[in-house]
Amino acid sequence: MRDDSKSGERRSPWARFGLWLLHEIKVVWLFTVYFAIAFTLLMLLKRLTLAQYEIRFQGLGVAVLAALLVAKVVAVLEKVPLGPWVRRRPAAIDVIVRTVLYTLGVFLVLVLERGFESRHEAGGFWPAVVRAFENRDRHRVWAGTIGVGGTLLIFNIMSVLRRRLGPWGLSKLFFATRMEELELGTAGETKVP
User: Fold this and answer.
1) Residue 189 has what pLDDT?
2) If we measure between CA atoms, which residue out of 42, 43, 39, 37 comes closest to residue 56?
3) So what's the pLDDT on residue 99?
4) Quick check: 66 and 106 in contact, CB under 8 A?
5) Which residues, other chains included, contact 27 with Cβ-Cβ below 8 Å and sequence gap of 6+?
6) Burial environment of residue 79 by CB neighbours within 10 A (0 to 12, 13 to 18, 19 or more)
C-alpha cells in the first residue's frame, strides 16, 4: 500500500479506487442528468416522428449511455483553455467556439459510427463512410449532429452562467429566487431589519 493522503494514512488500492470513483461521480453527475434529459427528449422526438410512419424505435438505453459519455467528455473539455484570444473576448465567443468544436466532434463520431456499422456491407470502413453520405444515413447524421449541437449550445451557455454566478448560483436563481425579486431587481440582496 502507498501513502496517498496528507495525513499520512495508508489506503488500499480498493479504497483509492473508491475515492477516485466518488470524485468522478461528483464531477459528472449534474452534466449526466442534463444530457440524459436532453437526449431522452431527442429520442422521444425521434420516436414520435417515426411513429407516424408506423416504425417502432427503441433508443432510451442509447440516450442514457450517450449522456454518460458526452458528460464525461464535456467535463474534461470544459477544463481545457481555448487560448488567450478567446479569453480576451466576450463570453459569447467562448460559447460559440466551444459549441462549434464540440459539435464537430459529435459529427465526426457519428460519421465514424456509420462507417463502423456498415463496413461489412460496403466492403470496408472508408467505402462505408462514403456510402453513408450517398444514402439516407446522411440525414440521420445531420439530424443527430444538429440535435446534440443544440444541447451543447445550451450547456455552454449555462456553463458561462454557472461560472459567473458560482457553483450553486444558477440553482438559487431558478429555485430560490421569487419572480417579484427579479422584477424589482432585488434578487440576492440581503434586507436589513
Assistant:
1) 58
2) 43
3) 96
4) no
5) 75
6) exposed
Find where cell 466518488 sits.
22
DSSP states of 157-190: HHHHHHHHH-TTHHHHHHHT--HHHHHHT-TTPP
Domain boundaries, the chain: 12-67, 81-183
State residue 193's pLDDT score: 46
* 82 φ/ψ angles, rounded to the nearest 5 degrees: -90, 0
Per-residue pLDDT tens over the stretch 30-80: 888 999 999 999 988 888 888 888 887 777 788 888 888 888 889 888 888
| Distance from C-alpha of 154 to C-alpha of 38, rounded to nearest angstrom | 10
Contacting residues for 3 by C-beta, under 8 A, at least 6 apart? 9, 10
Residue 160 cell numbers, joined: 458561462
Cα–Cα distance measured from residue 44 to residue 58, given in angstroms and rounded to the nearest whole number:
9
pLDDT computed for residue 167 by the predictor: 78
Closest by Cα among 148, 145, 149 to 133: 145
Kindly tell me if the per-residue pLDDT of 156 is higher than 50.
Answer: yes
- Name the grid cell of 33: 442528468
